[in-house]
Task: structure prediction
Amino acid sequence: MDRPLPKLGNPGNTIEVLQKYKFNFQKKYGQNFLIDTHVLDKIIDAAQIGPDDFVVEIGPGIGTMTQYLAYAAREVCAIEIDRNLIPILQDTLSGYDNITILNEDILKMDLNALAREKNHGKPIKIVANLPYYITTPIIMELFEQQVPLDSITVMVQKEVAVRMQAGPGTKDYGALSLAVQFYSNPQIVAYVSPNCFMPRPKVGSAVIWLKRYTKIPVEVADEKLMFRLIRASFNQRRKTLVNALTNSSDLPYTKEQVIRVVEMCGLKPAIRGEALELSDFARLSNIFSG
Result:
């Protein structure tokens, strides 16, 4: 079957669909629908969607991006939590024979089973325009659950994208930067104005492409311990690394133990956590756990 060209990126068509169904935006789901064809094209290009790909879209809304994905990919699974949008999606996507629509909460789904069923367990590509309050939990859940991922291409609040990509010594660098960079190589591919959405959000957005590493870039014996050290370092980011780790209720080490391990890593006791790279935290963690 020939797939129709996507048409929902046009604001007039989006308004027509919303009026037809008398759709009311749900604040609790943080719904903002894209109405800019240039941004949609950029997302498809950034995600490197091709005719062999199985794509999972989280939060399809009324199906704007889904049409673009279905036009480019082999198959798309669109996962939408708002059941009021399901009849709209069944209408706007009726011309495509390669889309499955699921009314589910992504945080409660078994994506490993979906990848086995739809993609023979091979890595899947995820594309999402997520409500900003739930962005980080969803991304971290996807990484931590060891879902077979090729990449995640996601629209997020601009400040969050900048934090994901930030490096040591910058004000935006923190626990989120290190968590994302442990699993993937993050690249901001587009900044998106509030005017590109309906309704218009109060903040600017960015599209970030997270290319999953096939091999984690550091060797770490205890990932959970490493992330406890990272969180403790940034919970009190103005304190020295030694004081931040010693004061953390999440860690059992004395000040003397912390100083000894920090010095064994070749770091000065007066250093702050924000100056450490991922490899430094991995080394700290390996010495503590050893």
